[in-house]
Amino acid sequence: MRFEPGRLIMHRNVRRGRIGWVRPARVVADDERGLLLWLARDTPVANEVTEAGLGMRAMPFAEWISSSYRLAHGRWNGPPLLKFLPTGAAHSVWWFRDAQGRFANWYVNLEEPAARWDDGPVAGVDVVDQDLDVVVHPDRSWRWKDEEEFAERLAFPDDYWVPDSTAVRAEGERVIALAEAGLFPFDGTWCDFAPPAGWAVPEELPPGWDRPPVR
């Protein structure tokens, strides 16, 4: 299954069969290397919160897993993001930008390989975000991110969606080696990407965005 450039698809994070977040993104390219997506500022999104409206990071994990949930609608208020999902890989790489729109750093999001779906009017990819991440700076120095959250959640194996922490960290180390060597995608590729002028930001999430996860 390949997606046509310019198509708006749903990039979704799934947690134990529930939708954790949804971010509509435009397909920049989809080929043997992987899927490249563009997430524009002010894009309509949805995020899982408790009935009180609190996100997962706003409370201890023990409290989160005993909560009831809903999906809250909002807008992407972070910087525009370019996201690359390498074919079959257990990570994605994001290009962050500063307030002036200039490349700032890479962000390695460790996740289960994406599962694709296409319902015709709406399509997307579902991933399972494994929480541990790596920030890679323009000089290829790097640091782990969210190690404390990762360790906290691993203490709840019956409720957490990461079954093998060793595999997650090993994937991170593999990607770190690419970054240190300045190899693709850390070789400057797409650092100056600009989306086509005709790519409008959707007004709202399209019907079907909340279809059951394919995982």
Descriptive account of the structure:
With 215 residues, this protein is mainly β. It has a single domain, classed as FomD-like (FomD barrel-like fold, Beta Barrel). The chain has three helices and ten strands, in the order E-E-E-E-H-E-E-E-E-E-E-H-H. The chain is globular, with a radius of gyration of 17 Å. 28% of the residues are buried.
Ends distance: 16 Å
Q: Can you write the helix and strand succession as a string?
A: EEEEHEEEEEEHH
- Could you tell me the strand content as a percent range? 35-45%
Biggest sheet architecture: 7 strands, mixed, barrel
Number of domains: 1
State mean pLDDT (0 to 100 scale): 97
Low-pLDDT ranges: none
Task: Give the helix proportion (percent range).
Answer: 10-25%
Q: Assign the CATH topology.
A: FomD barrel-like fold
Number of strands: 10
**CATH-assigned homologous superfamily:** FomD-like
Task: Determine and state the CATH class.
Answer: Mainly Beta
Name the shape in a single word.
globular
Q: Which architecture does the CATH hierarchy give at level 2?
A: Beta Barrel
Cα gyration radius (Å)? 17 Å
Q: Which structural class is indicated by helix and strand composition?
A: mainly beta
Give a topology summary:
Elements: E1 8-15, E2 18-31, E3 34-39, E4 44-50, H1 61-64, E5 69-75, E6 81-86, E7 91-97, E8 103-118, E9 123-136, E10 142-145, H2 147-154, H3 165-181
Parallel strand pairs: 1-9
Antiparallel strand pairs: 1-2, 2-3, 2-4, 3-6, 4-5, 6-7, 7-8, 8-9, 9-10
Features:
single chain; 215 residues; mainly beta; FomD barrel-like fold; seven-stranded mixed barrel; 3 helices; 10 strands; 13% helix
